[in-house]
Amino acid sequence: MPQADPATSVRLQKVLATAGIGSRRACEDLIFRRRVTVNGKVAQLGDKVNPDTDEIHVDGQRVVTDTKMVYLAMNKPRGVVSSMDDEKGRNELAEFLGTFEQRVFHVGRLDADSEGLLLLTNDGELAHKLMHPSFGVAKTYLAEVAGPLPRSVGRQLQSGVELEDGFARVDTFRLVDTFGKTAQIEVTLHEGRKHIVRRMMDAVGHPVSRLIRTAVGPIRLGDMRPGGFRHLSNAEIGALFKAVGD
After folding, report:
1. Ramachandran assignment for 195, one of left (phi > 0), alpha (psi -120 to 50 degrees), beta (any other)
2. Is 59 a catalytic residue?
3. Residue 17 C-alpha from the chain's centroid
4. Are 208 and 200 in contact (CB under 8 A)?
5. Rounded Cα–Cα distance for residues 183 and 187 (Å)
6. Catalytic choice (111, 171, 202, 246)
7. How far is it, in rounded angstroms, from Cα 14 to Cα 48?
8. Residue 168 — φ and ψ, nearest 5°?
9. DSSP assignment, residue 81?
């Protein structure tokens, strides 16, 4: 591996330990066992790296070592717009996030009437890949819809429906529960078009009354309270990079 710039280089095991991979000794063991690569090449004990620019993987999974990078998951409440500075003065994301030294922005959107998982970061390259349809990162939604729901609806959604801006289909469909004239369903799709789930359910005659995004790729909403947020773990960040092929 080429020598790192002495002015910016740090021992690899220290960089890995700072990133939360393990103790310095545990990180040395990972390097010794050839489980660490730097810029695509197997690392060796004694290697030095630039944590801000070098691309480091452990067991094939990307490790973010640039301490200026921020990766967050938030449970966006209903009635809040996906904006950090809304021109109309509506309830916005910034009200829940407090102050960060780095400016973060949301990855994609959830409309004001929808709720659930929203990712925020200052990593523009990763955000672009997560939003771009060519990378095919799936999103999962839990929806309450008008019932009763015939069995044919799931097949119809998976086969695809025609919308005003083109054909759309879900990857998976599951009936979760039924209560009175309402049904709860779970759908997963790679689509990112505006109001896509609501428009698809309207098209099959079962409009959505509540919509919650529960997952983006490998990141799940879990039991985070509405308005709450958390920093993604190293494993979650690595899984996001893996989902977009990095």
Report:
1. left
2. no
3. 24
4. no
5. 13
6. 111
7. 9
8. -150, 145
9. B
